[in-house]
Design goal:
The protein is α+β, with helices and mostly antiparallel strands. It is about 50% helix and about 15% strand. The chain contains 6 helices and 3 strands, in the order H-H-H-E-E-H-H-H-E. It has a 3-stranded mixed β-sheet.
């Protein structure tokens, strides 16, 4: 007989709650896709509204020579979305500033 995992219901989260667990999201991302982790580790969580998580990279742009991954991130976005889903149970869309 196969054991079934219990279904977990996730309540709506606020930006502060996501921020409080962001390091766990990044740890999950690093474990599955280190390149994606490098591209997203310096993002600042700007807002979370109606399922859209906005990331701000203005601090990363201060070091554009070594920390600018704007062209790479679109290919890695799905890895971040999956890390957020597996860690926080949220289905999000990512928006970048």
């Amino acid at each position: 007989m196969l054991s079934q995992r219990p279904q977990v219901m996730f309540a709506a989260m606020e930006l502060d709650e996501i921020r409080a667990q962001w390091n766990q999201v990044l740890d999950s991302l690093e474990a599955t896709n280190r390149i994606a982790w490098i591209a997203y580790f310096d993002a600042r969580l700007s807002s979370y509204e109606q399922g859209v998580l906005t990331l701000d990279f203005s601090d990363a742009r201060k070091f554009a020579a070594s920390h600018e991954y704007v062209e790479t991130r679109p290919n890695l976005k799905s890895a971040l979305v999956e890390a957020i889903n597996s860690t926080l149970g949220l289905d999000v869309e990512i928006n970048e500033q």
